[in-house]
Design a protein that fits this description.
This protein has 503 residues and is mostly beta strands. The protein has one domain: Beta Barrel (Porin), CATH 2.40.160. The strands form four sheets. It has an 18-stranded antiparallel barrel. A hairpin with a 2-residue loop joins strand 2 and strand 3. The radius of gyration is 22 Å and the shape is globular.
Length: 503
């Protein structure tokens, strides 16, 4: 398989240096004018296992099935230590090892069978990276990602802007330097910062952006978009203090209007048509930078954390302008804009023994805007404070089976009757995984809204002929109203096959 635009023996040392001085703009066949399309759930954070699957979508905390059954260590370990944060800085060997490349090669083909039936992806994806140590107090990591999708290069099912945006894509993955001084550990560069502890859900993971061009369907390490950040951590016995600063932000990758999973859910009223302007990306100034702090501790088996994060929202709100041509006809123009928000929250987890692993998260968000259908509302949005919380438990069952069940809710303060969401948006998820044979396992994920009949159902079979080979096949079924976060894709039901080789 070819990796477009990248030479097989590119110098990873050069990648580290360039990543520190070059603006991290992603490349594509036709570059977007104002987007830091830097990847993708990309290189997994050191605190998280690469096969864990988490995600979030505006208006609904979302879940992706893990490539393996959920495990108690899918996010952060129950105890704290140096290796829980930045890379530990051990003395360099007298005989340094040669450069070792690690990563994966993946091919996924999906056919959307809702009329008109069409292939919606045939992506070839490659991720490669390496890490090393220059001295006893300086470590490095570098990685890159590239993908090509022949569906968008050869077929004419999608508009030209969509084809140009999704036929080829590449970014710098986790690429950073680690060092330490006076008890503090520092990481500078492009990195995933994982604050959440829920299995599969994306509540407290407020820092890392996401590639939503395929909704929440890809695996954890494909969905994540690392941030360019400076990070400082301090460990004291069972406690951990962390500060982050993101001088310029990477935002969710949402694609172009007309794409398979473009995240828009406000239908045009009769006589009007919807149009879309380019996404407005905030300037890279100090005023638009992100910053935050997090403290965590272990108390009598309870893993507790609290954080505050001030940022440009990684997800966009669609601001509205109305251009009437008559009292009953016209054009509605939407512009994706990123709000300045603040988020304060916390997490907890506890091993309950035979009763399972308990996890919970809560996040209070202020400054975010939400769409309303009222034509007289300026910009078509209202600002609302929200609380998102989730409680879940993970069970290990007989016969090599696992079950994860979670309940989540978003609460709107001062709810507007013309919002697309209810004042209390409640949902449940269930993920059941079982080994059917030594190298074959089955899995089904169900995400269900309690407010309405809106759900995503994902049965899947995975065959692992070798430890580093995986072949999966499944079906994704969407149900719900067109104004729903899941229901807006109700004509995107698809069959897919994925092959992946890790090295």
């Amino acid at each position: 398989m070819k990796n477009p635009g990248l030479r097989p023996r590119v110098s990873l040392l050069a990648a580290v240096v360039l990543s520190m001085v070059v603006t991290p703009a992603a490349w594509s066949a036709k570059p977007s004018s104002a987007r830091d399309t830097a990847p993708i759930r990309i290189a997994a954070n050191d605190n998280a296992q690469p096969d864990a699957s988490d995600s979030a979508v505006e208006g609904l905390p979302s879940l992706i099935p893990s490539d393996d059954a959920p495990t108690p260590s899918s996010d952060e370990p129950p105890s704290l230590g140096k290796d829980d944060g930045l890379l530990s800085l051990t003395p360099a060997s007298d005989k340094p090892e040669g450069l070792k490349l690690r990563g994966f090669i993946q091919q996924e083909t999906a056919y959307t069978y809702a009329a008109p039936g069409h292939f919606s992806t045939a992506v070839f994806r490659a991720h490669v990276g390496s890490s090393g140590q220059w001295s006893s107090n300086l470590k490095w990591k570098a990685s890159i990602r590239a993908e090509v999708d022949p569906v968008y290069a050869w077929l004419d099912h999608y508009p030209d802007p969509v084809r140009n945006n999704q036929r080829a894509y590449g970014i710098i993955g986790e690429t950073y330097l680690d060092t330490s001084a006076k008890g503090w550990d520092f990481r500078i560069g492009r990195q995933n910062i994982v604050w959440g502890e829920m299995v599969g859900l994306f509540f407290a993971d407020v820092v890392t952006a996401k590639d939503l061009s395929h909704f929440i369907l890809p695996s954890f390490d494909v969905l994540r978009i690392p941030q360019w950040a400076a990070r400082a951590e301090y460990f004291l016995k069972n406690s951990h203090l962390e500060f982050i600063w993101i001088p310029y932000t990477s935002f969710d990758r949402i694609g172009k209007p007309g794409a398979e999973f473009y995240p828009f859910q406000v239908p045009a009223p009769a006589g009007f048509t919807n149009q879309f302007r380019d996404e407005v990306i905030p300037g890279r100034t100090i005023a638009d930078s992100n910053y935050g702090a997090r403290v965590s501790t272990l108390v009598k088996g309870w893993d507790l954390s609290a954080f505050h994060y001030r940022s440009m929202d990684s997800s966009a709100t669609f601001y509205r302008d109305i251009a009437p041509t008559s009292p009953t006809t016209g054009t509605i123009i939407y512009t994706p804009i990123h709000d300045r928000i603040a988020q304060t929250g916390g997490t907890l987890s506890k091993d309950l023994g035979d009763a399972g692993i308990l996890k919970a998260e809560l996040v209070f968000t202020s400054g975010r805007n939400f769409n309303v259908t009222r034509a007289t509302q300026a910009n078509g949005v209202v600002q609302k404070d929200t609380i998102d919380y989730a409680v879940g438990i993970d069970y290990t069952l007989p016969a090599d089976a696992r079950l994860n069940v979670q309940v989540f809710q978003r609460v709107f303060f001062g709810h507007d009757a013309d919002q697309l969401q209810d004042a209390f948006e409640t949902g449940v998820t269930a993920l059941y995984n079982r080994k059917l044979a030594p190298k074959l396992e089955g899995e089904i994920l169900w995400i269900q809204s309690i407010n309405r009949w809106e759900n995503l159902v994902r049965p899947r079979l995975t065959w692992r002929p070798e430890a580093n080979w995986r072949v999966s096949a499944g079906i994704d079924v969407f149900n719900g109203p067109v104004t729903g976060v899941i229901g807006r894709y109700r004509d995107r039901d698809r069959l897919y096959v994925e092959t992946r080789y890790d090295f």
